[in-house]
Amino acid sequence: MFPKYDVIVVGAGHAGCEAAHAAATMGSKVLLVTMNLQTIAQMSCNPAMGGVAKGQIVREIDALGGMSGIISDETMIQFRMLNRSKGPAMWSPRCQSDRMKFALNWRDKLEQNPKVDFWQEMAIGLIIKDNRVEGIKTSLGLEITSKSVVLTNGTFLNGIIHIGEKKFGGGRTGESASFGITEQLVTLGFESGRMKTGTPPRVDGRSINYAAMEEQKGDEIPGKFSYTNTPPLVEQNSCWISYTNLTVHDELRKGFDKSPMFNGRIKGIGPRYCPSVEDKINRFADKDSHQIFLEPEGKTTMEMYVNGFSTSLPEDVQYQALTKIPGFENVKMLRPGYAIEYDFFPPTQLKLTLETQLIDNLFFAGQINGTTGYEEAAAQGLIAGINAHRISNEQDEFILKRDEAYIGVLIDDLVTKGTEEPYRMFTSRAEFRTILRQDNADIRLTPLGHQIGLANNERLQNVQLKIQNSEKLYQVLTQIKVTPEEINPILATLNSTAIREKASYYNLIKRPELDINILVDSFSPFKDIVAEYKDNEIEQAEIKVKYEKYIEKELQLAEKLSKFDDMKINPDFDYSQLKSISIEARQKLLKIKPGTLGQASRISGVSPADISVLMIHLGR
Prior knowledge:
By secondary structure, the chain is of the alpha+beta class.
C-alpha cells in the first residue's frame, strides 16, 4: 500500500509542516502523518507570527528556504515592527494572521510539492531495529517504512485538557490525544516529563464595545517577513487594548478553589513568560491591573482572541470576569479558555541535528522538546527536516552555530542546557544579537540554504545583489562630502551641532539624531544619490555606518569563541576516564555527549578547569 519513504513526519503543526517541506524540497520522498488533515498548520493559540526574537527566527527560516515567512506574508492582516525606538539588534517584526487562511495556505503549499504524501491516522509507535528507526506503526495496525522519522507531536502525547474541575483527554480542543509513542520511547530508555500550556477564551467581536478600548493600528508602511517577492499588505485590521481591574481579579478569585493550577491536579510546568491570568493575579498580588490585548482571528470572521487572559478556571468564572473588563460588558463568549498537559522529552537527549542519541535517524522537533511558540517549533522542524534528509542520504549533518542564527542559539540552548519549563526565545538569550539581526538574516543564511539545496538560485542572486549594492552605497557615503553652507541649516532644525568644514555623509549619519531618511527628505542632492538603491540596501548601509564598531567587536569575539565549536569530540568518547574533572562535570558530559568542545563549555556544571582537562585528553 505504501512505498518506502525517505522521511516520515508525524504531526502537521508548524514543526511538521516545515520538516516536510524542507525534506521534500531537498529531494526526499516524504509522508506527512496527521490525525486530522483539516487541521494542518493550525494556529492553536494566538493568531500571530513573530515578535521579539521570534520575528528574527521567522526571517531566518525564510532566509534558509523555509515557508513560514511566505505564509505569514500571504495571510497577515496587520504588521508591526517592534522596538523601533531601540537599536536594530532589537527590531522584531510581528504580524497578526488570518488563522484559517494561514492553515489553508500551508496545506496548499505542501500539496503543490509532488514529493509530499499525506496520511490521516494516529501513529502509535515506531519500528526500531538495531537502535535505528525504520518507520512507524499506526492505530489501524499498518507498518509504514522509511529511512528516518521526525516526531512533531505538539501537545498531543497523552494530552489532558483542564477547565475548572473538569478534565478530559485531548491534544487540542475538539481533538483526541495521541497514545503509544511515549510509552514505547520510555521502554527504549528515553526520559519523559510533563509540561503545561494554556489558551484564553475566544469571544464574539460583535459584542465588544471598542469605544471603551485603546486602538492599536499596524505600521503606516507595513513590512513583511519573506525576502521573496510576496505581496505587500494593503488593508490592515486593528487590535485593541484594555486592562483588568480589581473587580475582575475578585471575580477570578471566586474560582481559585476549583482551579487545576492551585489544587494540584495539573502537575506539568507552565510557561514562565506567558502565565495564566489566575497565575498573574496570584503571583503579582500587588498589581491592580494587567493588560488585555484583543486580536482579530481573521479578515472574514468576528471571532476574537483575548490575549493576556489565558486560563483554566471554570467557564462561568471566566465569563463573569470577562464582563468586568472595560469594553467587554456585553461580551459573548464563543469557547472557554483551557489548560493542557502533555508529554515532552528533555532535549538533552538529542544531538545538535535534533537526532536522538539513543535511536539513529529519529528526530524530535517542537513542543516534544519542551519549547513553546509557533516560531520555535517551525525552526526546529526545519532543521530536523534538513537533517533527516541529509542523514538518510548519507550527507554531512547541518548545524547552525550560536553566532550564525537565533535558530542556532535555540537548539544549542535546548540540547546543551535542557529546559525544565516551556522554552521561549528572547533576544537576551543570544550573546551575538548585534550580528543576528532580522534585517541581515538573508546575508547570514541564504548562502547556506542554497548550498544544501533548500534556497533556490533566485534567492541567492537577490542576496548577492543586496550585499553588492549596500556595500557600494556604504563606499559612496564615505567618499562624498558636503559643505557647512549646504548642511548646517538642516542640522540646525535637528538641534545637531553645526560643522565647520566639509564632512562626509558617513560622518553625518553616525550622529544619533540623523538618519538617511532625514537627509533624503531635507537635502535634494542626497536624495538623488540614494534613489538608485532599494530600501533594504539603504538600511544595510546605514546600519553598517552607525554600528560598525560594535559589529566588528562582536564578529571578533564570535570568531574567537567559534574555535572551540570547531573542535569535534568523538560521540563515543569515554568521559569516565577523566578522573581529574568534577563528578558533576563527568555526569553532565556523559549524559549530554557534546559534539564539540564549545558545546561542552556551555554545559551548566562544566567549569573552565574541566574544559582544560578535556582539551588535554583531546590532544589540544
